[in-house]
Amino acid sequence: MLPVGLCVQLACVWEATARKPGNIHRYRDFEDASYLDFILSAAAIAPVLECAAGRSVGQTILDAVRATRLVARTNTNLGIILLLSPLAAVSPGEPLRDGLLRVLERLDVADARAAYEAIRLANPGGLGRVAEQDVHDEPTQGLREVMALAADRDLIARQYVNGFEQVFDEGVPALRQALEQGATLERAIIACYLHLMAHHPDSLIARKRGPDEAREATRRAQQVLDTGWASGGGDWQALEHFDAWLCEEGHTRNPGTSADVVAACLFVALHEGTVPLCPVFC
Q1: Which domain holds residue 170?
Q2: Quick check: is 279 in a domain?
Q3: Which of 23, 111, 167, 191 makes an SS bond possible with 107, Cβ 3.0 to 4.6 Å?
C-alpha cells in the first residue's frame, strides 16, 4: 500500500495535469492562479495529510489550508482538502470505506470550528451567507451536521452525509471502467470528470452562475460523455467545444467542485491499487 502522503500528492498532481474542460491544467493558467500553484499546493498538503490518522479532521483541514497559503496566493484546493482529510484520517490497514464511515461518525463541534476557520482563510469564490450555521459565525453543531445543512446545494458537503457515495460508487468505477477499456490515465480522468459533471450539476458553477447554467453544463457534459469517453475513447473535438463554452465567461463556469471530487477518486484508486503507480498518462 502506498503512503497516504504520496497518494495525496499524486492524486492532486494527476487531477491538475489532465486537460479537463473548464479547468486549469498543464497547458492553461487563469489570470489569478496557475498550474504551478496547483502543483505547489499538492506538495504543501501531502505531509500534512500523511499525519492525519489519529488527529482531528478539522485540525488537519485547517493545517492543510495554512500550508497551502504558504505557496499559493489564492484558493487552489479547499474542496480537495475537505474531501481528502477524512479519507486520510482512516487508520492504516483499515478498509478505506469502512474506516471513513467511522471517521465521519466521530466528527464534532471542534472539527466544525477548525473547518470554518479554514474555509474563511481559504476564502473560496462564490461563498455567500446562509441563515443557519453560517461559516462566518461560530458553529454549534458537529462538522457532519453542518455539512448536512449544505448537502442539497454542495456536492462536497453531500459526501460527508452519504459516506462519499459519489466517490466510491460513481467516480472510482467510471475511472476504473475507462482504464479497463484501455484508456490512458488522462483519458480516464477526463471520463471520470465528465461522468460526475453529467450526473451532478457543479456546485461552483451554481454558486457563481446560478442553477440554470449548472444544469446546462450537466447537459453538455453528457453529450460529450456520449461520444465514447466512458469506454476509453471519446471525441477530443467535442471536448474542446465544451471547454470553449465553459471558458466563455472567464472562469466563472469553472467546474471546480467536479474537479475536487475527481482528486478524491484518484486518491481512493491509488490507495486501493486501482491505478498503477507509473501509468501511461497521455
Answers
A1: 4-272
A2: no
A3: 111
